[in-house]
Amino acid sequence: MGTIVPLPSTPVEAVPTSPERDLLAESTSISQPPSAFEVAANRAFRGLALAFAWGAVLVVVWVVGEVGHVAQPAIRAYGLGFMSGTVWDANRQSFGILPQIFGTLYTAVIGLTFGTIFGVAIAIFLSEGFLATFVDRALRALGFAEHPWLVTLPTRVEAVLKITLELLAAIPSVVYGLWGIFVVIPLVRPGADWFNAHLGWIPLFGTNLSGPGILPASLVLAIMVLPTISALSRDALVAVPVRLREAAMGLGATQWEAILGVILPAAATGIFGSIVLGFGRALGETIALAMLAGNANVISWSLFSPCSTLAALLANHFPEAGTIEVGALMYAALVLLSITLLVNIIGAVILQRAEAGLRGLR
Length: 362
Description:
This protein is mainly alpha-helical. It has a single domain (63-361), classed as MetI-like (MetI-like fold, Orthogonal Bundle). It has 13 helices and no strands. The longest helix has 43 residues, at 36-78. It is globular, with a radius of gyration of 31 Å.
């Protein structure tokens, strides 16, 4: 009998199941190179995005160039003395904008200070859920915490507050101006009179508040920049990694110690960016300041003194300006534009350095 030699066994490939076949087909389709249409669409999108980016830059250059071109006669006639002069008299063709530069920066800084304090406080209040916690505790104390409709009430109340703050940015400037005249000025006048009567020897309270002035204008400016600062600061605080907060808590820090020592420094770049944007808004505000600042061509450190700003100067004088005064007004507009651009450039540089310093913390 012959010897039976066993045949070599060959491995039988497993037949892929239906889900495996779908996954294999999907991976095969993903690994395919892009089609000619996809390549063309990608290049078109990149080109369009690049064109819009350069278009924005060209628009800024075009605006600056047009303003500078119209202001060229005034620049040649008045030179740098235009920014140190204190008289604006179109009849004598004497123009100077030092009081307007001072008023613009003074009101913007004061308004930004109040807006930053309240804006960052509101951002912390919303990002840390203090409002929702308070509403939830109140519902538990009243015995309504388990009610089906009231379970989500804390979140809804917090959302209503966020939307209300954002809607402040949609109110027209003239409405803010009217509100400042009929509400803010009568509200602050008794306190201003008391400070002037008892602390009038301090330069900040050296004059009385007869009506429009620096303080009412700055308070309205603070409310106008509040939505920008609070919304962007809240986004920056929410973006802080949770592990930083947990690490601070794990080391024994209280909630406020974690907020002030860890969360705020980590979100500093975003908060500073919101402050820079708010400063730009305050520098360029026109109608509200034209109604509330007083339009007085004076330089005074008193919070109750009237003043004037560059934007208000343009709004008040441009409709009736002659050819010579139009050139001077465009020169003032060029100065205001330069101040705004300089503030944004300085803010961008500080943001880059702060981001580099905090890079290892994120």
